[in-house]
């Protein structure tokens, strides 16, 4: 059977991005897997479960019924949703009631007209934005209701449409399974109800951990009830070569998991037929201070043990004999009965689907500390593009501040669209600091001792960015200095890329020209330039890197760098003639993930950081992902989504505001008819034109025109490269239809 992760948090820490995933909140327990949407764009993961109630479901309109009951069917059972809400740190569900002469709660004294049913079939008389036991709506708490005599807008009973909405966030009461609407039996009474999906954030179980400081440390819990089936899973991290993870004893029966040696994990038990031991041997040491996952199962038919992704070890149970595991002592996690206990960290310990609260127990136990440190050793590799892994008490996060990227793993491009005539200047030293401070502060990596000399010159630069444009010539990027030295990346009038260095010692600047490739073709292109002394390495898109060398007479110091320009150069003093020409009208297009040594000028402009004071912008900078992966994930198609319920079940955006279907059925039918008519006309036209041409005996082809090698090579790269994702393909598809 497929092994699903226990939660969205677990998928995130496998480096996965936002999408629909199957999760199994109680391991191999009785609940079974369910499909949820995991939104990984924030520090804490959101898990979303959808239902089938349409947005703005209308009730009433002269219906004779006294009560109207709206039933919500979820893509999961109530028990499965409870497993998610109970392990979450916070949950919420949006609820909205739009009314025309239909009262909602009316007075706090009387019985409400409308209520909702939550977990365990309990009725609740509070509304979104309020809390348990407070029979009010959000406006009653904020004291801004339409009629101050009432605690809900709808209770004023107006003939115009009014609305009460907000978040239900008492997670013990969620999810909403029914809404019962009562005040509909008068002429002119109408109401519309919307309920959002259940959204939960955080996972208290995944990071629930304890550190065992001495080999005699242990935590004890009540006896493990695993008579006919036992399912135990946990993560461990250690630098010790052996130690007992956990043990529970009976008269003669027992169950035990231990690290036998640096490469062996053992699962042993006795149900009355004599002891059985299963050992998994790892080819690599397990005491490497990285997280390892252990999964042990035992039932009447067989027992199994798995460590990480190593092959599963299975042992069949004897056909005759005892099958019940009878235990009576407490469950010991760590040292038990004088044995050498486990040294290190255990986390997310689940016994038959229940996570043991190691953290709480560790707080009151000597020799054991709650929580764990050192998550970065296992997960630091997920912080991409130079992001730094930062230890947290329950997990880790990626610090992207020294990178040109954003997002939880520093992989989200930060880019902007430049209109004609716009430019951005990044001053390497902020106003009011002496030029000498600049070196150690902004431009140079303080980790590199060679370049913290006080003479303010660079022996090496590292520049990377991505751009797209259809207009040439233009200046993409320019680094100026207090001397005649400069560096520039340009697109010349033919649309070819040129890197220009002027470091002194040569009559003319040194140029690297990338001919026979049109870079002004509207597609995203990436440029990486690294200079170390005389050696320059250029990598363009996904072509192999090429090496160049500055002329022997050239100086190799970039003296006194002053500012970096994007889009246009506005600098005092003498400026290179070509650059002066290319400067008008200026760059139009997109620039993203711009990084020069330790500086990310675009990010400093778009995200308030301590570097923002260095930035000056002319025009309005509009953030754009520049054809990088789209940030929204389209909902699954009905064909691939087993929970598709022919409804607007996924129409709730994440901010909880209800959005309608967008297109109602009638307009969809009319649109369909129009489309068919247009299609028929087009087919007839095509047929006629071909018929005419055939009779003339000529058949023109335009294929040869657009097929120069340059364009097709770029196009081929883009189709194969996952980073240049759907955006471009989508636009192509639209034209092909």
TrEMBL record:
| Residues covered by the EGF-like domain | 373-411
Write one Pfam family the protein is assigned to.
Answer: Laminin_G_2
GO BP annotation list = cell adhesion
Keywords annotated in UniProt:
Cell adhesion, Disulfide bond, EGF-like domain, Glycoprotein, Membrane, Repeat, Signal, Transmembrane, Transmembrane helix
GO CC annotation: membrane
Question: Which chain regions cross the lipid bilayer?
Answer: 668-689
Q: Which residues form the Laminin G domain?
A: 208-372, 440-626
In the bilayer, the protein is annotated as: Single-pass type I membrane protein
Ranges for the Fibrinogen C-terminal domain?
1-51
Where does this protein reside within or beyond the cell? Answer: Membrane
Name the SMART domains on file: 4.1m, LamG
Q: Which cysteines are joined by disulfide bonds?
A: 345-372
The UniProt entry, under NCBIfam families, shows: GGGWT_bact
- Assigned protein family: Belongs to the neurexin family.
Q: In its UniProt entry, what is this protein called? A: CNTP2 protein
Name of the gene this protein is made from: Cntnap2_0
